[in-house]
Amino acid sequence: MRKTVFLLCLLLSLSACKSSKKTAASSKKTTRTTAVAKKPNNHASPASNASIENIIKTAEKYNGVRYKYGGS
User: Fold this and answer.
1) pLDDT digit string (tens) for 13-63?
2) Phi and psi, residue 63, nearest 5°
3) Which residues belong to the signal peptide in this entry (predicted)?
4) Considering the domain boundaries, does residue 66 fall inside one?
5) Considering only CA atoms, which of 57, 39, 38 is closest in space to residue 49?
6) What is the dihedral of CA 46, 49, 53, 55, to 10 degrees?
7) Is residue 2 a part of any domain in this protein?
């Protein structure tokens, strides 16, 4: 008898959790668009050899120097 009352209460409590609101199907249509790949605009003039060599020489000066942690 106790089991039937317990099962009845359990079923009633679970049935109360049911949503009464009905869901409507979406009527939106999806459209697909294809994106055209654009070539990058590289109109910037390349760096001169002298400036590239200058950067490399400056970087080589610091080769082997230990990193000093900064911060506040």
Assistant:
1) 776 666 666 767 777 777 777 777 777 776 666 778 888 999 999 999 999
2) -70, 125
3) 1-18
4) no
5) 57
6) -20
7) yes
